[in-house]
Amino acid sequence: MFRDNFNLAYKNIKERMSRSILTLLGIAIGIMAIISLMGIGEGMNVAVEGELSSLSDTIIVNVGEGFSIFSFGQLEDTGEYLTERDITDLERIPGVKEVNTQLTGMASLSFNGDDNSATVTVTGMDIETMNLQYGLADLSEGNLLKVGDQSKILIGYDVAHDYFDNDISVGSRVKINGKKFFVNGIFSQQGFG
Fold first, then answer.
1. Nearest 5°: phi and psi at 70?
2. Distance CA 180, CA 174 (A)
3. Distance CA 45, CA 84 (A)
4. pLDDT digit string (tens) for 67-100?
5. Could you tell me the pTM of the whole model?
């Protein structure tokens, strides 16, 4: 039976040679097209991942509307923040080298006893993280904070020069939500914000 089927198939292939060749050619082209498309897709995936990973190795996670919101006069806790357990879980993820946190919100800043105040964005972070993130190159005046510094802050160029009638300088005393702070450094002017 097998021999009869084989002889019949051989006879049909031999008699219709052009049809057989075209069928084999169509099958071969289809297989090559599928393999080529899979190769191109995988190559594009690797290229895009490479480009994205070369742009930055920092991932910023925002919780809720922000870590906490400052109101004029007191700190209002929204209850939306990363817990120590969340931080530990993030540190356990393969490929994560370090996890740093910061608090960001809005506050009222006053200077030189002025009745007018300005609304500013306030960010609090670990001193080592701040030094790595900003470095001395970003300061136009003064110094970065050191471990143990209390009631000292760094301010942006615009806050120092544009928010009040008189410029704020290093060593000046300002109030943030009614608490006194000394300006330890002023960041350089850096485009928008």
1. -90, 130
2. 6
3. 35
4. 443 333 444 555 567 778 888 888 888 877 777 7
5. 0.54
